[in-house]
Specification:
The protein has 94 residues and is α+β, with helices and mostly antiparallel strands. The protein is built from two helices and four strands, in the order βαββαβ. The longest helix has 20 residues, at 18-37. The protein is elongated. The structure holds [(2S)-5-oxo-2,5-dihydrofuran-2-yl]acetic acid. Pathway: Aromatic compound metabolism; beta-ketoadipate pathway; 5-oxo-4,5-dihydro-2-furylacetate from catechol: step 3/3.
Length: 94
């Protein structure tokens, strides 16, 4: 299945109801962990010092990745940069 690296940068607007923000972050965690358990989100790494992550997705196609990203509860407050990955010719494991 195709692999994708996705960098997510979160920017929560100032002045929002703190309960709304907390609820959204809790829903984000549950949604993310459900997809991780299903195998389509095998890696998520925090970018040190930033409210950002770099994740690896292992999904059927572009449409499925799009569906997952649009379903993120924090999606409205984040920007995503998607990079499709191909095997590197120097990879000794390939
Ligand atoms: O904290 C983040 O990087 C944003 C987001 C992505 C997955 C998740 O649980 O939170």
């Amino acid at each position: 299945m195709p692999l994708y690296a996705v960098r997510m940068d979160v920017a929560i607007p100032d002045g929002l109801d703190p309960q709304l923000v907390a609820d959204t972050i809790a829903r984000e965690k549950a949604y993310s962990q459900e997809i991780q358990r299903g195998g389509e989100w095998p890696h998520i790494w925090r970018c040190v010092g930033e409210y950002s992550n770099i994740s690896i997705f292992d999904v059927a196609d572009n449409e499925r990745l799009h569906e997952i990203l649009w379903g993120l509860p924090l999606f409205k407050w984040m920007t995503c940069e998607v990079t499709a990955l191909a095997t590197h010719p120097s990879d000794i494991n390939a």
